[in-house]
Amino acid sequence: MKLAGLIFMVFMVFGFSGCISQSVEEPQKPVLSEEVSSDADDELDEFAEEMQVKEVYDPFSGYNRSMTSFNDGAYEYVFKPVAQGYRYLFHEEIRMSVQKFFHNLYFPMRVVNNALQGKFKNSAEETGRFVINSTVGILGLFDPAKSKFGLQAHEEDFGQTLGFYGAGSGPHIVLPFIGPSNLRDTISLYPDSLLTPIDYTERSYWTLTDTVAEYLGVKSVEKVNYASLNMERYDKLKQDAVDLYPYLRDLYEQYRDKQIEE
Which residues of the chain have pLDDT under 50? Predict the structure, then answer.
């Protein structure tokens, strides 16, 4: 099974990276390395500090507020404890490599959306990154394209592509377990999913997962791994928020506008 192959590959990486966790007497410290997060994550942190008050079209505010509370509760009482245990078990370098592996898998989405926006130089750079990281970087577990060749990632999705051509965001929508979104970006999840190799529907091309169980397993590893590297970010956002729902809503909508403008 493909999922079994993925698990075997990850454990092979554990051997390369120096393996397992720190001792019980020395619990793992919060991640501080700049290499852990993507440039987009760092940019979001800076944007949150400079965010301005702006009116957002929010006809579903009652539902959105309830769903934000649900997502926050699921994170605090289920997702965060799992991520903390995962972070305790696996060294930071292992978790960084897992994040890079997943980021490399989403190359088709980035290269196509860059091309659709006429950013052909970015598409070429993304292609170069994929070739280098998939070979020299051992299936994307490492990022020599950036560290050795200076090739930067260019994060683009179909929501940004629609926005690039003038599509408005529509009403704000909070999605279960996913978080803040809007009508344009929610619709865009489907075409983007067709450009990713993590899926459970029958495709005419290779996918990493074939069944719902495999899909949920791999996506869970991806999300828990990401959370283990970025828990402090969300905790800081909550500390800065007087009222969590409108704060996350405004941050999401304004940051997406900024991404589209770029």
Answer: 1, 3-37
Whether 54 is in a domain gets the answer no
Place of tokens 């965060």: 80
d(CA 195, CA 113): 10
Q: Measure the CA angle with vertex 197, ends 223 and 95; round to 5°.
A: 35
Using CA atoms, how far apart are residues 223 and 206, in angstroms rounded to an integer? 22
Give the pLDDT confidence score for residue 38 in this predicted structure.
Answer: 61
Counted domains in the chain? 1
**Whole-number Å distance between alpha carbons of 192 and 108:** 9
Q: How open is the CA angle 105-226-178, to the nearest 5 degrees?
A: 90
21, 27 Cβ separation under 8 angstroms: no
Is 208 contained in some domain? yes
Q: Do the domain assignments include residue 135?
A: yes
8 belongs to a structural domain? no
Whether the model pTM is above 0.85: no
Angstrom distance (rounded) from CA 83 to CA 79: 6
Find residue 182's DSSP bridge partners.
Answer: 172
* CA end-to-end span of the chain: 41
Alpha carbon distance 85, 228 (integer Å): 9
Q: Strand, helix or coil at 174? A: strand
